[in-house]
Specification:
The chain is α+β, with helices and mostly antiparallel strands. It is built from nine helices and eight strands. The strands form two sheets. Strands 3-8-4-5-6-7 form a six-stranded antiparallel beta sheet. The protein has a two-stranded antiparallel sheet with strand order 1-2. β5 and β6 form a beta hairpin.
């Protein structure tokens, strides 16, 4: 039986969850294409043969889509599981760094352990206790719902960059653009977790002039600004 038919996550091993989690994180930092098995093996610190075996098992379970010699990507069911694990990890990272004052490295090490054993209702309580943070200490977006229903990971207060006002500073939560556009933005340092500031808007609202994380400036057309999700910050 496929996991996504009943999404029987109680029977999933920590290793299986870690694979899905890692694929999601590599995809988040990548170009939107398939993840090569070599990159997955390197990220997990395991041998390629082990990755091949696990990926085929996850593919049989309907959690990943695997194409030999091309790579792997998550299915909708796999994204749901990965989002739940990432949500738990990143909320624990916030708690451990902000409330317990642990270093980001130590917080991440502990969060990697907690993410697999924290029940959904506890994750929900943790989220509320932390006032529903949008980003982890590493600038990564935090999925909002344990059931993975929020495909865009949007938090309260998120909005398109196109709606920002002159002088506003915001953190980029996600970018729903095609790869050429994402590559253009990435070249200017604009990706999830980046902090930007709008310094000018065209008379017809057709483009924005944005200060990038590196201190440079880039013009962004309104259509592209519509698919850049940000959350305003006071900083």
């Amino acid at each position: 039986m496929h996991y996504h038919n009943a999404v029987d996550e109680a029977k999933m091993s920590e290793s299986e969850e870690m694979y899905l989690n890692t694929i999601a994180r590599l995809d988040e930092d990548g170009d939107g294409g398939r993840i090569p098995l070599s990159a997955l093996a390197q990220a997990l610190g395991v041998q390629p043969v082990s990755v091949n075996q696990m990926v085929r098992k996850l593919a049989d379970a309907g959690l990943v889509d695997y194409a030999p010699y091309k790579g792997v990507r998550l299915t909708a069911a796999g994204e749901t599981v990965a989002a739940k694990v990432l949500r738990a990890r990143r909320l624990w990272q916030v708690f451990l760094t902000e409330r317990l004052q642990l270093s980001p490295g130590d917080a991440n090490t502990l969060a990697c352990r907690f993410e697999h054993v924290t029940p959904d209702h506890v994750v929900d309580r943790l989220d509320g206790y932390l006032d529903e943070p949008a980003l982890s200490p590493f600038g990564k977006p935090i999925p909002r719902h344990a059931d993975g229903a929020d495909a865009g990971y949007d938090a309260p207060g998120c909005a398109p960059l196109a709606s920002a006002l002159i002088g506003e500073t915001a953190d980029v939560v996600r970018i729903d653009a095609d790869e050429p556009a994402r590559g253009f933005l990435r070249a200017h340092g604009l990706q999830a977790g980046a902090r930007v500031r709008v310094i000018a808007i065209g008379d017809d609202g057709s483009l924005l002039l944005v200060v990038t994380p590196a201190g440079g400036m880039v013009q962004i057309e309104s259509d592209l600004a519509q698919v850049i999700t940000v959350i305003a910050t006071k900083a």
